[in-house]
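User: Fold this; C-alpha cells only.

Assistant: Input:
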Amino acid sequence: MSDSIVLDTALCLPASDIEALIQGRMIATMSRIFINLGRQFALYPTNISINLQPYEQYYCSSLLPIAQTALAQISCDKVVVKAWARCEGCKMYPPESLDTLSQLTVWTKEALQRSLGQRPHIFLAYLRVYLLPQSLEILLQSQNRQFRPLNPSLIVSEEKPVLNDRTFAQRKHQLEKLEPALHPELEELQSAIVSLTISQPAAKQLDDDIKAFLGWSSDKLIKQPDPNLAWINDIAKLGDRSIELEEKKTNYQAGTDFENVVRDSLELLGFTIDYAHKGGAGGLDLFCSKPYPLFGECKAGRKIPNDTAVQLLNLGMLRRSDLFNQATKLIIGPGEPTTQLQHAAKIQGMAIIKPETLEKLVKLQSNHRNSVDLFKLKEYLKAGQSDEEVEKYINHVYTEMSLRSHIITVVKELSEQDNQSSKVTHQSFTVTETRVHYNATYNHRLNDEAVHEILIELSSPLTGYLGRIKSSNWNSDRFYFLRDLPIN
C-alpha cells in the first residue's frame, strides 16, 4: 500500500495539456516559473492556453479531438481534477530545439515559437503523473497564478501511476537528450485512427497497442480474445461429434460442420482455400491452392473409415489429376487408424492427424500470429499417422519462441541492472553483452553470430520487441528493450 501524500496546492494547466499527461502522450509542461524538484501538486484544468492561441493551432493533429472534448467538459462554475503530479526536474531549451520538442510533445512548432516570445529559452518541467482513485470536483476560481491553493487539502497515493518507473525514466531521458521519436510512422498511424476509436472496438484495441508500444502507456500489449475465433476451442469436439450428439444433429450436418471448421482452421493457418470444393456427397472435402496444393478429407465421428484413403485418392484424381500426385494429402479424423488405413495412407503418401492436433496448431497460430511456417509444417506431415511428428513441430515452434522471449528478457534485465547502478536510462547493449548474460542465465552456449541474428529479427519494425542502434560493424550494433514477448 502506497503511503498517503497530502497536497495543498494545484498547478493550473490547459485542460488539453492535462489530458495529454494523463494519457501518457507527454511527460512535461511549459512553465512560467522554476518548480522545485520533488514538489507535488494536483493538476487543475483551465480553459485557456499559455498564449491564448486557438487549440487548432496549439496542438498536433492527433490531440485535436481530445483537446476539443477536454475544453468542452469545463463548466462555468467548477472543474474536475483527475490527477496529481510530482516535479522530476526542469530544463531550459534553446530555440533550435523546437522541431524535436514538437515531436516529443503535443505542441506544434508554431505554439512553441509563440510561447518562446522574446525569451532566449523554453522552460519545461518534467512531471510524474498519478491518477486519483476518483475524480474530484472543485469550484472554479478566476485567477492567473500558475499555482492555486487547495482547500481542503487533498490526500493522494502513488497507487495509479500513468507510466511505470522504467517507462517514465526512458521518456525523460529521451526528452532531456532531445532524442528524436523512434517510430514516427507509428505515431502517424495512431493519429490516423484516433477518430475511429470511439465507434470501432478493433480500432480502439489497435490504438491501445500502438500507445503501449510507443511508451505512451505502461500497459503491456496483451492479445485480447477475439470473439470471432471462439470456434477454435471446438475443433476437437466437432471432430468426435460430442457437440452434435448433444444437439441431436444428423450425421450429414455433423460432417458438414466438421468440414467447415477444418476449412476455417487451414485458412487461419495461412492456406488459400478453393471453395469450389465444398465436400458433400461424392465431393472432395477440401483443396488448398496456396502456398502449395493440399488435398484433404475430413471424417467426423468415432473413427476414420477404412476406405478413406481410397476415397481421397479417387476424388483427388477425378477433380485435379494434374496436381494430385505431387500435392500434400491430408486426412483429418478421430481415433486410431486401422492397420488397413495406415497401410493405404503410407502407400499413397497421405498424412493422418487427429482433430486435437489440428486444434493445437490453430491455437498456436491464433496466440502467436504467423508463428506457423507452412513449408516447415509440410516436412512433418509424414505418410501415415502424423500426430507425433506435428507435435514435434509445435514443440519446436514454442522452443524457438521461448529462446527469443529469453533474449528479450536478458536485454530487459541488463537495462534494469544498469539503471540501478548508474541511474542511466534508455540503455543499449552489444551482441556480446547480451550473449554473455544469456548464456550465464540460461546455461546455453550460443555464439555471437547466433545471438546477433536473433537480435536483428527481434528489432525488425515488423516485430518491434527490441530497438537497434546500427553500427558499421555488426558486432558493435547495440540493442535496447521495447516490449515483452509473452509465451502462452
